[in-house]
């Protein structure tokens, strides 16, 4: 028992030294942080002697000053807590270029979807759309005649009837003349084609290409075998041709019907169309409509005149060179001239092939020279002079429009592609100018120094410039 008091003494001494070291560390911490520790607990104050404020501060949901509930606020972190970077707004974290690209992308997707749906609808009623567009083109060609007859005193109905009947009769006579010429010369043409093939065969045998008669006979045999093997496909194509003829006749009758109503009530149709446009955009569309119609009228009349000149001069060249069916070929050249770029190539190639198989290589070369000369005069003189700036479209736009129209709706799409692009060019240009003018009108007039800065400067040599 004598060792117990010594052990207790040593334990007390150790606790005293630990307390002293804790006091020293607390003093060092207070010197490093002048604000003191975040929490202070009064261990030496009895619970009964503590004031009400101290008892209230022991509860985290009671205000020590008012003894009421604390507001719903988050206490500020202590000063020694590490700083935490705030997370930015997701919109602000995305770069500006990516945000602009995203905004443009979804709008382009919506526009592409709308165009795709529109093309699907048009393809499902392709015959009706092409008939109506053809009626618009014929109306643009005949409407100036109706206006002229009305200025001479004829009633609107009579002027429309006279113009429409005259136009349809002329078109029918042209078609009948082409069919009559082809049927009348088909026997002579077949005989001359046979003679031309024989001449071409002899020319190939004597040519420097070293073509043998056996090779020519093999080619002819292969062609006959291919025709015999594909007889079923040719028959089905003929049946499809009958269907195409029926659809073409239906489209022609529908186009004639639409032309009559457009010639008679075109203004009322346009006013009814304007009612479908939103009220805010109606003034701009109302101003763009007449300009688009003038562009379409100028295009149709100019194209008809240019095609007529091409057909007359190329037809005269074919007639002087004694090419069979010169008149039907001239009519084909006139009709194919309504297909920009492609039509001239097809009609010229057809004339050269007929000249080659009927009159030989020299005549075909002369026909090619005539076709190229007339087309060069057309491209550099006639079109700029007749069409002018009203329907000026870039050649790249013409090529792309014809290709897109041909892929979408065949020959009819290729015919209406260029006038559609010309009309859209006019409409977009006018709407852009109209929106700019409206923006300038809504802008307040500049005053003071701003007005002086934007004031026009007189040109040198004027009266104001001389006075200055």
TrEMBL record:
It is found in: Cell membrane. GO terms for cellular component: plasma membrane. InterPro entries: AI-2E-like. The chain crosses the membrane at residues 161-183, 244-264, 298-320, 326-346, 353-377, 397-424. It comes from Streptomyces vietnamensis. It is a multi-pass membrane protein. The keyword Transmembrane applies. This is Membrane protein. Keywords: Cell membrane, Membrane, Transmembrane, Transmembrane helix, Transport. Residues 19-34 have a biased composition (Basic and acidic residues). Residues 19-39, 52-74 are annotated as: Disordered. PANTHER family: PERMEASE PERM-RELATED, TRANSMEMBRANE PROTEIN. Belongs to the autoinducer-2 exporter (AI-2E) (TC 2.A.86) family. One of its GO terms (biological process) is transmembrane transport.
């Amino acid at each position: 028992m004598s060792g117990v008091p010594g052990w207790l003494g040593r334990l007390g001494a150790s606790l005293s030294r630990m307390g002293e070291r804790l006091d020293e560390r607390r003093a060092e911490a207070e010197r490093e942080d002048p604000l003191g520790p975040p929490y202070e607990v009064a261990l030496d104050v009895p619970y009964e002697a503590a004031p009400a404020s101290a008892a209230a501060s022991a509860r985290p949901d009671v205000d020590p000053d008012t003894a009421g509930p604390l507001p719903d606020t988050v206490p500020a972190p202590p000063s020694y807590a590490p700083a935490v970077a705030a997370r930015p707004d997701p919109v602000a974290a995305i770069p500006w270029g990516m945000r602009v690209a995203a905004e443009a992308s979804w709008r382009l997707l919506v526009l592409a979807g709308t165009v795709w749906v529109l093309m699907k609808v048009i393809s499902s009623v392709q015959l009706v759309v092409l008939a109506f567009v053809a009626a618009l083109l014929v109306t643009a060609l005949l409407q100036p005649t109706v206006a002229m007859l009305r200025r001479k005193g004829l009633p609107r109905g009579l002027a429309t009837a006279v113009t429409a009947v005259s136009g349809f009769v002329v078109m029918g006579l042209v078609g009948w003349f082409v069919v009559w010429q082809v049927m009348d010369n088909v026997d002579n043409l077949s005989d001359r084609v046979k003679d031309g093939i024989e001449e071409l065969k002899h020319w190939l045998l004597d040519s420097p290409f070293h073509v043998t008669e056996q090779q020519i006979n093999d080619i002819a045999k292969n062609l006959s075998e291919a025709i015999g093997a594909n007889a079923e496909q040719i028959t089905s194509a003929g049946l499809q041709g009958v269907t195409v003829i029926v659809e073409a006749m239906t489209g022609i009758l529908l186009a004639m019907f639409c032309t009559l109503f457009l010639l008679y009530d075109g203004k009322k149709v346009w006013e009814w169309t304007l009612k479908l446009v939103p009220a805010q955009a109606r003034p701009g569309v109302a101003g763009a409509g007449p300009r688009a119609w003038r562009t379409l009228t100028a295009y149709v009349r100019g194209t008809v005149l240019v095609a007529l000149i091409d057909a007359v001069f190329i037809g005269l060249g074919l007639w002087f060179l004694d090419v069979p069916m010169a008149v039907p070929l001239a009519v084909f050249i006139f009709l194919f001239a309504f297909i920009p770029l492609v039509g001239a190539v097809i009609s010229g190639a057809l004339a050269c092939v007929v000249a080659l198989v009927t009159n030989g290589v020299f005549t075909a070369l002369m026909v090619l020279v005539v076709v190229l000369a007339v087309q060069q005069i057309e491209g550099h003189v006639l079109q700029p002079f007749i069409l002018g700036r009203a329907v000026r479209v870039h050649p790249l736009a013409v090529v792309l429009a014809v290709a897109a129209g041909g892929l979408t709706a065949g020959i009819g799409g290729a015919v209406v592609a260029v006038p559609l692009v010309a009309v859209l060019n006019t409409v977009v240009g006018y709407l852009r100018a109209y929106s700019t003018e409206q923006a300038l009108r809504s802008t307040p007039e500049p005053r003071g120094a701003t007005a002086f800065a934007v004031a026009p400067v007189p040109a040198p040599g004027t009266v104001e410039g001389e006075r200055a």
